């Protein structure tokens, strides 16, 4: 038998290492997809196979130091006996990628809306680049005047990173619209756990009871700010009241 040259041995080892890395990557992608699919079923949402790559890309780039926080100016912190009741903040004028959803349940709307935004963030845009995750992902919700019921229509929105604010990449998905939101003062209160119609109405009523002048804010439009992805169980959220312009 002819002796194998060191070069050819290197090539065969190199390709087998590449194949092994590829196999491990495929297994990880499959594991993440099946995890999201099982979470999706809990929210009555079907997570399609074409979400495997965006899910893996977002997971890989989702370390805390990779995330950019939506910038704001803190105006006031209201505390009682050492507990933070709420913060008053000013958010500047900025561009957001927005998608309107109207599923039967709130959880379905945010999961499906978030998946569409994930595709946009993960290269399905005119730049062909991964745009980077920003937090929070926000959802605009509407209630009746008595704040006892939510309407089905919600808007899920992603803040475009600072470096893309001037020229946001165009989404391939025509359902995603780039909007410029005006500078706004918000009253923000933190809460943890799942977000559904019942928990949101509860948080709206809690913050309305704490604020000295809730009538200065919009009475039928609120924002849920999510700092952890919709697949997480113990999510970190905020309810935002919007001061009237």
Automatic annotation (TrEMBL):
- Region (Disordered) residue ranges read 1-27
InterPro entries reported in the protein's UniProt record: Reg_factor_effector_dom_sf, SOUL_heme-bd
The entry sums up its family as follows: Belongs to the HEBP family.
- The residues forming a coiled coil are none
Q: What is the protein named?
A: HEBP2 protein
Domain of life assignment: Eukaryota
Q: Name one GO molecular function term.
A: heme binding
Q: Where is the composition biased (Acidic residues)?
A: 17-27
* Residues spanning the signal sequence: none
């Amino acid at each position: 038998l002819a002796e194998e040259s060191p070069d050819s041995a290197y090539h065969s080892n190199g390709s087998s290492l590449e194949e092994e890395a590829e196999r491990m990557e495929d297994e990880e992608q499959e594991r993440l997809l099946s995890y999201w699919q099982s979470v999706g079923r809990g929210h009555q949402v079907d997570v399609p196979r074409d979400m495997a790559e965006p899910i893996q890309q977002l997971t890989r780039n989702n370390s805390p130091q990779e995330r950019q926080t939506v910038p704001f100016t803190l105006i006031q912190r209201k505390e009682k006996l050492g507990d933070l009741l709420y913060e008053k903040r000013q958010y500047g004028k900025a561009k957001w990628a927005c998608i309107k959803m109207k599923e039967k349940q709130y959880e379905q709307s945010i999961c499906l809306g978030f998946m569409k935004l994930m595709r946009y963030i993960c290269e399905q845009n005119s730049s062909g680049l991964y745009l980077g995750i920003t937090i929070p992902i926000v959802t605009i919700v509407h209630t009746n005047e008595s704040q006892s019921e939510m309407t089905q229509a919600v808007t899920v929105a992603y803040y475009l990173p600072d470096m893309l604010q001037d020229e946001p990449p165009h989404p391939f998905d025509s359902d995603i619209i780039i909007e410029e939101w005006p500078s706004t003062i918000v009253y923000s209160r933190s809460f943890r756990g799942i977000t559904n119609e019942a928990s949101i109405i509860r948080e709206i009523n809690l913050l309305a009871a704490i604020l000295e002048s809730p009538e200065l804010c919009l009475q039928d439009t609120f924002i849920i700010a999510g700092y952890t992805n919709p697949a997480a169980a113990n999510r970190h959220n905020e309810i935002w009241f919007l001061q009237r312009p």
